[in-house]
Design goal:
The protein has 16 helices and no strands. It is mainly α. The protein has three domains: 90 residues, no CATH class; 48 residues, Arc Repressor Mutant, subunit A; 145 residues, Tetracycline Repressor, domain 2 (Orthogonal Bundle).
């Protein structure tokens, strides 16, 4: 009893400061959300020193009191996010997990990021949930399993990459021949990115020793789109053996992607460009069609 009395006395002497020791640390920073000074918070949280042990109820009452005392002018300066945070702080609520398209985007992003950094097998559902912030039930309701999510993430990543790569190529000025060589300039740009970890599809295929039929289907679809784009460009460049040069350029691109990831250098892009220059002999504008070099 004496100890309790001494605590009460210290609480009175500190003008409510003792109460703050009973509050979760995040409530000491509530003024940051409210745009008010710490003394104002202390004033709002001042309590009867006879009941310092009732921290939970008093915390709620104190925060309600502070919200009620905020002037209309001060409230108008708060962002919607800040207002929501104050409400959640008062009721003890946490940020709700994202739902709908936003949740799906986070799941795909987290899955592909973890798979590229750690590998498919080493990536767990718990890690995907933690990194995405999405509820576990949302993952299973949408995809049913980790494998299905990984497949969807890889297909999505391939689609995003193709859109970026061939949009950059279309924006590059020059003749069809110059655009063929620009393929490797764009790859050099890709290899220089801090988040470059190779091709997600290649990494997954090599890790699984190409035993995943669903993954093989995704890779075939991806390569089909890439080959189609290359074939059209090679044809426009006036090459006789369109199919041969198309396959040679595709092989150069794949080799550069793997070597750049292993060596951790963008140099393979320019090395592949020099080989492409040898495969694609120069032709005068309006001259005869040229034949791809057979190695």
């Amino acid at each position: 009893m004496r100890d309790a009395s001494q605590r009460d006395e210290r609480s009175r002497d500190k003008h409510g400061g003792g109460f703050l020791s009973y509050i979760d640390y995040k409530y000491n920073r509530i003024y940051q959300y409210a745009g008010v000074s710490p003394p104002f918070v202390l004033q709002c949280l001042e309590i009867d020193s006879q009941v310092p042990h009732r921290a939970g109820a008093l915390r709620t009452n104190g925060l309600e009191k502070m919200e009620n005392r905020l002037s209309a002018k001060r409230k108008s300066r708060l962002s919607p996010t800040a207002v929501n945070r104050m409400g959640r702080a008062r009721t003890g609520q946490k940020d709700a997990p994202p739902k709908g398209p936003k949740a799906n985007a986070r799941l795909l992003e987290a899955a592909i990021g973890l798979c590229c950094r750690k590998g498919v097998a080493a990536t767990s559902v718990d890690e995907i949930i933690e990194e995405s912030g999405v509820a576990r039930m949302t993952l299973y309701n949408r995809y049913g399993s980790k494998d299905a999510l990984i497949h969807a993430a890889l297909a999505h990543e391939a689609s995003v990459w193709r859109a970026w790569f061939f949009t950059r190529l279309a924006e590059t000025p020059g003749t069809p021949r110059e655009k063929l060589l620009a393929l490797f300039d764009i790859m050099d740009e890709w290899f220089r990115r801090d988040d470059y970890l190779g091709c997600a599809l290649m990494n997954a295929a090599m890790e699984g020793r190409n035993t995943d039929e669903k993954l093989a289907e995704i890779i075939r679809a991806h390569k089909s789109h890439v080959i189609e784009q290359l074939r059209a460009l090679v044809h426009a460049a006036g090459v006789n053996d369109v199919e041969l040069l198309t396959q040679q350029l595709d092989l150069l691109m794949d080799g550069a992607i793997v070597k750049a990831a292993i060596k951790k250098t963008p140099a393979p892009a320019l090395e592949a460009r020099k080989i492409a220059e040898a495969l694609l002999p120069s032709a005068s504008r309006g001259g005869p069609r040229v034949t791809a070099v057979t190695l």
